[in-house]
Amino acid sequence: MQNRREFMTLALLAASTAGTLAHASDYPSRAIEILVPSSPGGGTDVMARRFADIARKYCPQSFIVNNKPGASGGIGMTEVQRAAPDGYKIGVLISELAIIPHLGMTKVTTRDFIPLARLNGDPGLVAVHADSPIKSIEDLLALARRQPGEVSMGNAGTGTIWHLAAAALEDKAGVRFNHVPYQGAAPSVMALVGGHVQAIVVSPAEIGSFVQAKQIRVLAAMAEQRLPAPYAEVQTFKEKGVDLVVGTWRGLGVPLNTPPAIVSYLRDVIGKTVADPEFNASLIRANLQPAYMPGEEFQAFMNSQSAYFQKLLGSVNIQK
User: Fold this and answer.
1) pLDDT, tens digit only, all 320 positions of the chain
2) Domain 2-122+248-313 maps to which CATH number in 3.40.50.150, 3.10.129.10, 3.40.190.150, 3.40.1080.10?
3) Phi-psi region of 256 (alpha: psi -120 to 50; beta: other; left: phi over 0)
4) 279 backbone dihedrals φ, ψ, rounded to 5°
5) What is the CATH number of domain 125-221?
6) How far apart are CA 107 and CA 154, in angstroms?
7) If we measure between CA atoms, which residue out of 72, 49, 52 comes closest to residue 62?
8) Could you tell me the residue ranges of all domains in the chain?
9) CA–CA gap between residue 317 and residue 20 (Å, rounded)
10) In angstroms, rounded to a whole number, what is the distance separating the alpha carbons of residues 102 and 281?
11) What gap in Å lies between CA 121 and CA 238, rounded to an integer?
């Protein structure tokens, strides 16, 4: 009887494997879903939709973008991780994937996907109201040293990349802020414009229109090098003597056990799409910085980000 059960198990496994391989051979035969783990209209959503539009040139099937926000991206990324590994549900993997597992907000980690590629990366910007008496990053840090824990620093929510970016600045500069969380980056920007906080950390895409309207002044960028206009005059923290490079990133991934042939196909489509000048131009118009990274390199990068934020979370009070 035991032998019979083992035989049946092996037979079912063989049949399942054969079905997967047969499916992979005619992939794609229908539309491919791109699941965005955040709300419509934000930078992640814009990037996914720009990709879907251009990638259609290089794939016989359409890419359909759907949104599943919640839990700092945890709900949407968990859905992708649990999806059938057939190549028909691709997830947008975002920087919070390296943070929220360490906060107990999700069990899904950077190792629970096959990464296809990173597409975009945006540094954190520290910004103040245009009328603020804080004229430079030196002014901000000096004020924070004189008034420990009193300078209000708005962010997109507790545990988000911009909260952690501000915490990283505290760690590097030896200061303490009064962290003020909002339900997303956009509300934090409006709080700054309305004078409810003294500073915020956000991405270039989230404040571009306010900078151009001279309502917000950017003090410094958490970037390796300076950004293009309208931020070309903004110095990096490295230029200011602070070794701080933190930012959001966005890429694509599929569930583990997706057949290698499907993974290879998708990576080829992505490679052609990111090489398309129209795709890169569309990102730049939205103040999103192209930052392509192939699959294996993206995996190593995500793992290093997870280790970095795990260590950082051990040294900061994330409940502020």
Assistant:
1) 545 555 554 455 455 445 545 457 799 999 999 999 988 877 889 899 999 999 999 999 999 999 998 888 899 999 999 999 999 999 999 999 999 999 998 999 999 999 999 999 999 999 999 999 999 999 999 999 999 999 999 998 878 899 999 999 998 999 999 999 987 788 899 999 999 999 999 999 889 889 999 999 999 999 999 998 889 999 999 999 899 999 999 999 999 999 999 999 999 999 999 999 999 999 998 889 999 999 999 999 999 999 988 988 887 666 54
2) 3.40.190.150
3) beta
4) -65, -50
5) 3.40.190.10
6) 27
7) 52
8) 2-122+248-313, 125-221
9) 47
10) 35
11) 18
